[in-house]
Amino acid sequence: MNEITIHWTFLPHTDPEASLAFYRDLLGFEVRQDVGGGPMRWITLGPAGQPDVSLVLEPPFADPGITEEERRTITEMMAKGTYARVVLATADLDGVFDRLKSGGAELVQEPTQQPYGVRDCAFRDPAGNMVRFNEVR
């Protein structure tokens, strides 16, 4: 069977500079591509040493087929943090937690041992996206 990997995943952003401060400066992701400008800016980032895995921050309303009603719904969901999410993994959950908390990221959940066997924590990025971190050993 062929190996399947995740190459790109997409999250919306509303403020490119705030998103860069979160993903590049706090998480240490590399900027791989930064195209467009203003509200129509796509930023591709990824963890160092993993060139084939990328997170693309995109404008949430770039699709010209989105209606005004859909735009309002997306805006409301982003504001509540229910529109998009990503789960990342780290061997140093406490270190990541401390770095994000001291960096001013919006805390959702402190490191917790979940009943389903995962120890994790959660923050929201500047656009409201849920960013969970699972501890892997």
UniProtKB/TrEMBL annotation:
<feature type="domain" description="VOC">
    <location>
        <begin position="5"/>
        <end position="136"/>
    </location>
</feature>
<dbReference type="InterPro" id="IPR037523">
    <property type="entry name" value="VOC_core"/>
</dbReference>
<dbReference type="InterPro" id="IPR004360">
    <property type="entry name" value="Glyas_Fos-R_dOase_dom"/>
</dbReference>
<dbReference type="InterPro" id="IPR029068">
    <property type="entry name" value="Glyas_Bleomycin-R_OHBP_Dase"/>
</dbReference>
<dbReference type="Pfam" id="PF00903">
    <property type="entry name" value="Glyoxalase"/>
</dbReference>
<protein>
    <submittedName>
        <fullName>Glyoxalase</fullName>
    </submittedName>
</protein>
